Amino acid sequence: MSTRIFGSGIKRREDPRLITGEARYTDDIKLPGVLHMAVVRSPYAHANIVSIDSAAAEAMDGVVAVFTGDDIDLAGMPTAWLIPDSDLKTPEHPALAKGKVRYVGDGVAIVLADDRYRAQDAADAVVVDYEELPAVIDPEAAAQAGAPLIHDDVEGNIAFRWAPFDKEASDAVFEAADVVVSERILQQRLLPTAMETRAAMAQYNAATQELTLWCTSQNPHIHRFIISAVTGLNENKVRVIAPEVGGGFGSKIPCYPDEALVSWAAMKLGVPVKWAETRSENYQVTIHGRDHVQHVQMAASSEGKILGVRATVYAGMGGYLSTAAPGIPTILHGLLYVGPYTIDSVYCESIGVMTNGAPTDAYRGAGRPEATFLLERMVDNVAREIGMDPAEVRRKNLIPAFEDGYDVAAGLTYDSGDYPAAFEKALNMAGYDDFRQAQAEALAAGRYLGIGVTAYTEMCGLGPSQVAGAVGFQGGLWESATVRVTPTGKVQALIGASPHGQGSETTLAQIIAEELGFPVEDIEVVHGDTTETPMGWGTYGSRTTPVTGAALAKASQKLKDKARALAAHLMEASVDDIEYADGSFSVKGSPDQAQSIQEVALMAHLAWNMPEGMDPGFEESQFYDPPNFVYPFGTHIAIVEVDAATGVIDLQRYIAVDDCGPQINPEIVAGQIHGGVVQGVAQALCEGAIYSDDGQLLTGTMQDYCMPKADMFPNFELGETVTPSPHHPIGVKGVGETGTIASTPTVYNAVLDALAPLGVEQIDMPLTSAKVWGAIQAARQ
Amino acid sequence: MWPNKFEYARAGSVDEALAMISDDGKFLAGGHSLLPVMKLRLDAPAHLVDINRIESLSGISANGDLTIGATTTHAEIAGSAAVQSMCAALASACGQVGDQAVRNFGTIGGNIAHADPASDPPTVLVACGATVNIQGAAGARSVGAEDFFVDLFETALDDGELITSVSLPNCSDCQCAYVKFPHPASRYAIVGVAVCLKMDGDTCTQADVAVGGATVKAVKCAGAEAALAGSALDDAALEAAAAAVKADIADWLAGDIAYPESYRQQMAGVFLKRAVRAAS
Lengths: 781, 280
Prior knowledge:
The complex is a heterodimer of chains A (781) and B (280).
Chain A lengths: L14 H5 L15 E7 L5 E7 L1 H4 L4 E6 L31 E2 L5 E7 L2 H10 L1 E6 L6 H4 L15 E5 L4 H10 L2 E12 L8 E7 L4 E6 L4 H12 L6 E4 L15 H13 L3 E4 L2 H7 L3 E12 L5 E13 L27 E9 L13 H19 L3 H8 L8 E2 L5 E2 L4 H12 L1 H13 L3 E10 L7 H6 L8 E7 L5 E5 L8 H13 L6 E4 L17 H27 L7 E4 L2 E4 L2 E7 H10 L12 E6 L8 E11 L4 E12 L6 H20 L30 E5 L17 H18 L13 H12 L1
Parallel strand pairs in A: 1-12, 10-11, 14-15, 20-21, 27-28
Antiparallel strand pairs in A: 1-5, 2-4, 2-6, 3-5, 7-15, 8-13, 9-10, 9-12, 13-14, 16-17, 18-26, 19-20, 19-25, 22-23, 23-24, 26-27
Chain B lengths: L6 E4 L3 H7 L4 E4 L5 H6 L7 E4 L9 E4 L1 E5 L4 H6 L1 H6 L1 H7 L5 H6 L2 H7 L6 H7 L3 E6 L2 E6 H4 E3 L2 E2 L6 E7 L6 E8 L6 E12 L2 E10 L6 E2 L1 H7 L6 H14 L12 H19 L1
Parallel strand pairs in B: 1-3, 2-3
Antiparallel strand pairs in B: 4-5, 5-10, 6-7, 6-10, 8-9, 11-12, 12-13, 13-14
Helix pairs in contact in B: 10-11, 11-12
């Protein structure tokens, strides 16, 4: 091979079918006789269901059945992250509400009809009499005495209170510190907005008792597990297929009532049942992200040494606890309070609060953006308080380079990092010192420029199963993979993870190609079907490349060992004399004698002439449980200009230096960073789900919910450093969430830096022009 | 995303369309305002009369005045040399409606019949003194744009009436501009300002100003016009006009959760100044 496939920015192999519209999503799959399900959803955030009259709906043309919560005999939807030492309550979550609705969109009935329009017509004709109750949306308000009680068995609406650190030690640090800065930070609700909305279709064979569920899942094996649990079917009789899945960003991790309901209806009626979400439903009922009210403090010396960070976090859970919800504002949040700094004292009290909003759960970054934001915000506050440049404060506190393990006060052991190198590289790319000069000159001319710098590290590649168990995750976090080579030398890589837009079919093929020398176009990555693929825990937490990638690398290495031994046997040479290069095995000193990997694969299948003790076939499987998380890191910098007349923010430059270890495919890494940065910047500048006080979602469509647009962004300036993970077979770290984690505080701090001369110190996100302009007016008065 | 049941029929002529429409029906032109509303089940017309194939409703003619057929698309208007020359602000506004796909389907007639206050073309039509030409069972009539737009999503159209065209005076000797502050989510106007200035040397002899987006309908702004007319469009005149425009629209303000009325009112002043600078 003239160039290494590992590290090469080859085009994404999944793109032709995606771009040409040939990809088949759940809703594209047609089954004869399918019934369409429409869900009657609550228009109230909190209400008792007095009565449901479905007679008119049932009488409509094409309507087969209407069912309400009393008809459904499914087990409740489970919460699968039972965080320990938190007095966790897991309120009942029926697939359809029974007696009471708890957020706008809560399902109260389902209609099955022969066509989707008729199903919707009939859903509109179901008459539900509600007795409206007072609602509460803000998580801090919901935790106060006297707030409307959402679940009778969740006293004070407090689902959990997680505070694993030493409070007295933290308090002592804050009492002794020269400087303490404080801020109330609002991490607003975000709508994940995957391009494909959710969908599910189920088919049940009563004779064999086999259920097949096609659905938009990031983790079909987990879906199988949960569907088995709620329906009572044996798990080996449940087949879950995630066909093409158009993005998830975490929103397709949970198992939702809708997926259970199509399964139940298909079993009940004996015909296939399909449901496909509208975008309006997607915004109402698919999980939301973030929703924290944080009271944060940072302690520092007057020389800018950060001494401690502490926070009380009210984390909105919504009307029910979604599948992984309790783990997000706790394990994935509070353990990240050290960031890339030498902070010796951390304290986090995270209070999970039931509210009358849609359930929240993991959204890209999931807990870690909320931690990185508060750290970076507080570092800028410390800098302002002591009159030091914020970049200098960061420089003073960065953890020095380390190659193999660094224990931090939050209890984690970072794997490897060289934070100062990434930091200085980003500052150089930005021309930081020159910018400060230009900024001063612009200010003299009445223009408001600002710069924001974020140094971050994050924990991903979830994760060691032992840790998963210790933190209450109701599953393992290993992955498995099979590398199967056909007699003609073509490769199927079967994986338990379930990529849905990340480009993993390309990067994972590159790993196999690197290890075994097959051309990448001969390698097919197969995923998404629980019957076809080995067990795996899914694609989230930036884990597929690190965890599945490791399983594939190790399976490939086992195949290579077998190939080497077989090649030696076929060439009548000693294994020690076999040399491997570019998919070919040759005998040392006799380069004319060679066996290609394809020839070896064929001979392994034919098994005409095997070495003693070697089994036939050319296939290896590997389970891989990572010994630690991986910790990518980097520094992001944004430069903005604020138009003081309107409050409009112009993002002029965005510099991102990220270190995810060796890059398998730099184009895909860049794509992940681009997408992540866009989503994170959007949180800072424009996205935010807003409920009215009585719990109506006011940002129910994209007319009001501001998705980022391409013209909001400059060309991103990317750089990288390469620090391999010491514990990973090929050194790689995850990169799916870094952009989202780093970019929100970067742009936020840049805007507040621009506004500093005007006296503006804090604005709740998103930084809409109206809020920025309002803050400028208020500061001028 | 699943509209209620409706009937569909295509009309071959204006007379046929008028004969086919009934009280619970709607004319279908580009459909880019009507169909989203139907898909959200916010409206449920029992039948649609498709007027897209009626030839007499489409096209741009420039004989003294500018006349634009009702089913002429935004893209055609934005790209028309005649419109660019005779009312550059309208070409600019139509070029800022939605995205290219919307502009290729959406029509001027459908746009103004829908009367979304945050849409761009109505603001220019009001500023430039356009006339809306209407055909009904009882005959034809014409209504000035300022009177055509009555209130939020409300026009002077009677049941069963069809917009056939809009006419604009030739504005090729004026300096006109449409400047828009787009809503980051929808790209509709938070505020849109259209100005049409007649100049004698450095002096503005006549100013026509309308504001949309910030208001429940496109509003003609007499106070701002008076502040600009007779001035040299200097900073003082612009400040006076900006102050006046906020008063002009005070009774008509509109807003949403993210960009409230008070902000939009202030921005009308800012964007009036920017529109005058863009025009002059």
